[in-house]
Design brief:
The chain is of the alpha/beta class and about 850 residues long. Among the domains are: about 140 residues; about 120 residues, Rossmann fold (3-Layer(aba) Sandwich); about 180 residues, no CATH class; about 130 residues, Alpha-Beta Horseshoe (Leucine-rich repeat, LRR (right-handed beta-alpha superhelix)). It is about 35% helix and about 15% strand. The protein contains 24 helices and 28 strands. The strands form 7 sheets. It has an 8-stranded parallel sheet with strand order 17-18-19-20-21-22-25-28, with no helix packed on it. The protein has a 7-stranded parallel sheet with strand order 10-11-12-13-14-15-16. Strands 2-3-1-4 form a 4-stranded parallel sheet. α1 packs across α17, α12 packs parallel to α14 and α18 packs across α19. The protein starts with a helix and ends in a 16-residue tail after the last strand.
């Protein structure tokens, strides 16, 4: 409970301080009231630290914390209303194009008076709570942690793929043998893997990818469409139902798929009874890890690079701690991730002697003790609250890193103040995410070479822990929890399916901040929204929802709106009053409100660009949203507010950006106004022209391309439909020495109808994938493709600076395309010649070309192909 209240208090302080410093607080005469409120909140924070130590033994302290949480919630609402009015004033002043007097008719005195009274009422409630604290024996324990104290470790996570399968090689082989065996007496045999939570059943069974649906009938229909007549393996993970009749019905529907002989089902479960109900043909009981394998797994994590330095002293303590994990992989991974961040032996000893180890009476309880220990040792309160927030997602959900961080931002768990003025909210959120990964409370999912880990999951036992530590603030109906008029619940996940009774919905919590609505029936959504005016996060996953009620504009506190998985195609005009909105995720939009640029706090805008043909300018005037970080697409047109210069003031853009309609850019100056070369956080850039447009001047289009120079840190570049005859100077080696795009990892060139030569690319040290498609005017790929001039010039200078006695044996070999793994060359209709990389006879250099190439899709094969020893696919 104390951690939850501390979180509320931290959010309040982070909101009070900037408001107190804003000019509007002085003009409205509430500046001193806000400053006094901040001091009282800090005093309460010091008391809460003492209450944290006494809450487990004192009912009075528990009741005091509960009352204080209610006061803190009221304070947050008041401050949010105040902050909303500040933003509204900024929008109004921008419209008038001048600073207005805050005592205007749009700002009635009644509002200012009401706000001042509310602030004073909150202060009075805090004073009363302070007196009550003294009466029950609470005393200030310590001052609030500074931003430096709360700063997260920004080192990279010690994610080790191999750790997931340590000690499971033999069992993996046994399961595979069961799967490939033909010695089964009935069609569609079931192979069951049985083991307790955390044993690694899912890891062992991950031979296929689960479908993203909870509707059995829809799943069976999808399987029938894709698997009829085919030999397939269906993986059913974490089965709990012991009802044989239900399984017989399910098996009958699966048999109706009509798979080929040899098809099988692989199921994981914690229960022998489930395996019996499924009439499993083969059973594999998953054993605990041996001591040796347990140590191998622990060692990979606790002593990974950047972690604790392995000494005999720490190793001895580690082995003693390891015995408490009982050979359970999840427990070992969590404790290893926890000790990774502990460098001192005294910290290891403290963990070894923790009382939490005494709370469990069985193996699965022991795993939960380890998880709780890891949670208690998270480095800051904000990380703990971010972990608890993950419980709004259903079990086994695939959680995108960016979505998690955006939700944490909207809930007030992370903000710019926590970065000490040096880090953005997104950076702080990324740090929290990495801490949770390191602790193995989150499990890494999809990752790529540009962005690293992009998604994650939570083990179901970890999910249980996240709900437990939320102290009733988070409620998820997925587990059968009953929703009632409970003012303690502020974060709610509703999971509904068509045809199911709404027996778990008895009332709507009045103080909801987060609503995640999942299902195939939107029957309850509007009812919940009508009662939820304080929402900060609204996430809807329901295709049956086709519109947003106009009342959504009254949700002044809303900061995160995700309707990307709905049937909504238009936004109500009232949405432009959501001045606090930081994240908006939509799809299939046909129109947007005219005053969309009012959303001045918007940082992340995600939408589907293509709808019914060629993309169009969907968000005119978007350049006014100066806080924008995420903008996946931008369509250039001649319409007002759709010119390329709209990107000029979007200095914080990051991630991926695709620019369409570049045939509408008329000059170098117009292109340069986008200032792409200054946008260092854009990692992936697509430049696209309408390739059907033949009306273009060669000099003009070449100059436009020059003006589109990206930042040197760019990781991925795609050029499509460019009608110029030459590549820009920023794509080739400058003076044959400096490569501008040295960090480029992916490059795709497509439909470049007039270019006769390919650019010099062999010098790009990080390039991993290259695609050249439909370069119809290229007849020859010559030595310039390899970038040899760069290397030869360097060698020449080196030779000139060396003594005449330098032998040719000392010359370093030249490696071209050193990291290229994927190379695709398609639809090159006029390509007639492909030269090998040649070195002049007077050069002492030797050459290596494509040493890392693994996958190739070439329609034209050069003679040197036979030298590629690492090639795996052609």
């Amino acid at each position: 409970m104390a951690d939850t209240v501390l979180s509320f208090v931290g959010v309040i302080l982070d909101k009070i301080l900037p408001l107190a410093a804003d000019e509007i607080s002085r003009v409205w005469g509430v500046e001193k009231d806000l400053q006094k409120l901040a001091k009282k909140v800090e005093m309460m924070e010091a008391l809460i630290f003492d209450a944290k130590c006494k809450q487990s033994t004192s009912k009075a302290v528990q009741l005091w914390l509960k009352r204080l949480r209610s006061i803190a919630r009221d304070a947050e609402i008041v401050l949010d209303d105040f902050g909303y009015e500040v933003l509204r004033q900024k929008v109004e002043n921008r419209k008038r194009d001048k600073v207005r007097n805050f005592f205007s008719s749009s700002n009635p005195i009644s509002f200012r008076t009401e706000m001042a009274n509310k602030i004073k009422n909150v202060s009075a409630s805090l004073e009363e709570a302070y007196r009550e604290a003294n009466q029950i024996g609470l005393h200030p324990a310590q001052i609030r942690m500074t931003s430096a104290d709360q700063k997260e470790d920004r080192s990279t996570d010690p994610f080790v793929d191999e750790s997931q399968t340590v000690g499971r090689g033999v069992e993996a082989s046994q399961v595979v043998s069961m799967l490939i065996s033909s010695d089964y007496k009935k069609d569609l045999p079931v192979i069951s893997i049985v083991g307790m939570g955390g044993q690694g059943k899912t890891t062992l069974a991950q031979l296929g990818k689960s479908a993203e649906t909870t509707n059995t009938e829809a799943l069976v229909r999808k399987l029938q469409e894709n698997l009829k007549g085919k030999n397939y393996l269906l993986v059913l993970d974490d089965i709990w139902n012991e009802n044989r009749e239900k399984w017989d019905g399910m098996r009958g529907r699966l048999l109706a798929i009509g798979g080929a002989p040899g098809s099988k089902i692989l199921a994981t479960t914690r229960s022998d009874e489930v395996a019996t109900a499924m009439q499993a043909s083969r059973l594999h009981h998953l054993d605990i890890l041996s001591d040796d394998h347990s140590w191998m797994l622990f060692e990979k994590l606790a002593f990974a690079d950047g972690g604790a330095r392995k000494t005999q002293y720490l190793a001895d303590i580690g082995r003693r701690i390891l015995k408490k994990c009982g050979g359970v992989p999840l427990a070992i991974k969590v404790i290893g991730g926890l000790l990774y961040s502990k460098k001192d032996g005294s910290e290891w000893l403290k963990l070894e002697k923790s009382e939490i180890w005494n709370e469990s009476t069985n193996t699965e309880g022991g795993v939960m003790s380890v998880l709780k220990l890891s949670y208690e040792n998270l480095p800051s309160l904000s990380v703990k609250q971010c972990f608890a927030s993950c419980s709004i997602f259903p079990k086994d959900a695939d959680m995108r890193k960016e979505s998690l961080i955006q939700i944490w931002m909207a809930q007030g768990l992370i903000n710019d103040a926590k970065g000490g003025g040096h880090l953005q909210m997104e950076d702080i959120g990324s740090d929290c995410f990495n801490v949770l990964l390191r602790s193995s409370l989150l499990q890494a999912g999809y990752k790529n070479s540009i962005n690293g880990i992009r998604s994650c999951r939570m083990h179901d036992l970890v999910h249980d822990l996240s709900l437990r530590v939320s102290n009733n603030c988070f409620l998820n109906t997925e587990n059968g929890m009953v929703v009632s008029h409970n003012d303690e619940v502020v974060h709610l996940t509703v999971v509904l399916s068509r045809g199911k009774m709404l027996k778990n919905i008895e009332g709507i919590p009045p103080n909801l901040q987060t609503l995640y609505y999942i299902g195939d029936d939107g029957i309850m959504l509007e009812d919940i929204l009508e009662s939820s005016k304080y929402l900060s996060v609204l996430k809807v996953d329901c295709r049956a929802v086709t519109h947003l009620p106009n009342a959504v504009g009254d949700m002044k506190h809303l900061r995160h709106l995700d309707i990307s998985r709905t049937g909504i195609t238009a936004l109500p005009d009232s949405i432009t009053k959501l001045y606090n909105l930081m994240t908006l995720k939509v799809s299939r939009l046909e129109e947007i409100p005219k005053k969309f640029s009012n959303l001045i706090n918007l940082r992340h805008l995600e939408f589907s660009m293509v709808f019914g043909g060629w993309p169009r300018c969907l968000f005119p005037g978007i350049g006014q949203l100066a806080n924008l970080r995420t903008l996946p697409y931008f369509m250039v047109s001649q319409d007002k507010g759709c010119q390329l210069e709209e990107l000029e003031h979007l200095r914080n853009l990051q991630g991926e950006l695709e620019i369409f309609g570049l045939e509408n850019v008329s000059s170098f100056e117009s292109a340069a106004k986008a200032k792409l070369s200054e946008k260092s956080s854009i990692q992936s850039l697509t430049l696209e022209w309408d390739d059907t447009n033949e009306d273009c001047d060669d000099d003009n289009i070449n100059s436009v391309m020059e003006g589109l120079q990206p930042h040197p840190d760019l990781k991925s570049l795609a050029i499509n439909g460019f009608k110029g005859s030459r590549f820009p100077s920023w794509m080739v080696a400058k003076d044959h020495v400096t490569v501008l795009l040295r960090n480029l990892v992916h490059l795709r060139l497509e439909k470049l109808g007039k270019c006769e030569q390919v650019p010099s690319l062999g010098d790009l040290p990080c390039l991993e994938s290259l695609a050249m498609v439909s370069l119809h005017n290229v007849k020859r790929i010559g030595a310039e493709f390899y970038g040899l001039l760069t290397h030869l010039d360097i060698n020449a200078r080196s030779s000139a600076s060396c003594s005449s006695s330098t032998s040719s044996r000392e010359a370093k070999p030249v490696t071209l395309f050193p990291k290229l793994q994927h190379f695709r060359l398609r639809n090159m209709k006029r390509l007639e010649e492909w030269s090998d990389a040649m070195v002049p006879s007077d050069s002492s250099s030797s050459i290596k070309v494509f040493p890392s190439l693994r996958f190739e899709g070439l329609e034209v094969l050069p003679e040197w192909m036979g030298s590629l020893r690492n090639l795996r696919k052609l």
